[in-house]
Amino acid sequence: MTLIIDKLTVSYGNRQVLHQVSTEALAPGSFIGLIGPNAAGKSTLFKALGGLIRARSGTMDLDGKSLDALSRTERARQVVYMPQAYGCNAALTVFESVLLALKQEGGWRVGGDQIARVSATLDTLSIPHLSDRPIGALSGGQAQMVAVAQCLVRAPRLMLLDEPTSALDLHHQLSILTRVHEEARRGGMVVIAALHDLNLAAKFCDRLILLRNGHVVAEGETRKVLALPAIGETYQVTTSLETSRSGNAYVDARLPERIPVRAVA
Ligand SMILES: Nc1ncnc2c1ncn2[C@@H]1O[C@H](COP(=O)(O)OP(=O)(O)OP(=O)(O)O)[C@@H](O)[C@H]1O
What we know:
Blueprint: E1 3-12, E2 15-21, E3 31-35, H1 42-50, E4 57-62, E5 65-66, H2 72-78, E6 79-82, H3 94-103, H4 112-124, H5 140-152, E7 158-162, H6 170-187, E8 190-194, H7 198-204, E9 207-212, E10 215-221, H8 222-226, H9 229-235, E11 238-243, E12 249-254
Parallel strand pairs: 3-8, 3-9, 6-7, 7-8
Antiparallel strand pairs: 1-2, 1-4, 4-5, 9-10, 11-12
Organism: Nitratireductor pacificus pht-3B
Domain ABC transporter: 3-238
Keywords: ATP-binding, Nucleotide-binding, Transport
């Protein structure tokens, strides 16, 4: 499964938010980080890929087939989008909510294989103990892990995660991204995760796409992108890419003196 985005332009009314966004071919099994400042257009790109908004021009091809040419049902089967703010139906248990996500593919008969798939997904994310809890009674971090489970259980070809770890503690940031990365490899899916934490991006992403004001300003192998001056310029901070004693890359960032806090576009 390969995803290619070519010259994608998206507007809200008269306001153009994505400008001719293009990517290299994003290969099956890869974990791509979508990075960029607030209001750069990351969620807008996800919404366009997920079919929630229509692109003004450009193409999004999955294995050579346009996403826009797929039926609604087929697109929902192939592309799963976890928005930043995920809703929840408070009346359901965690298990039921993950099963319901799986059943969006169609039909209401529940088979043993589907029950097993839900259980396996909750196990993969180490949250089987939450199965019987009402979904409305979860902590913010627990609800975020359940939202990831609702995506993973559908085994899509393209998974779009908008800030999937923003509510998670350090342990769970690492464990959830590790599992998602493993599942991407195992299932040959393309995962694109919008991440504000560049050190998580450094640790988990195979490649990065850097967006600024709706333009792709850099794309490529993670360490190469993080070492570019474009990182500091885009975030208006001073950065350097360092390597820890254990060999992990991390971004050391400082706010330059006399630069005011930037207004969000
Ligand atoms: N429904 C909408 N109507 C009009 N403008 C919108 C709408 N949604 C987003 N925008 C604008 O589009 C721009 C890009 O927003 P988007 O949510 O894609 O950014 P983002 O990179 O995901 O930001 P953040 O990191 O803050 O979540 C912003 O200027 C935003 O105000």
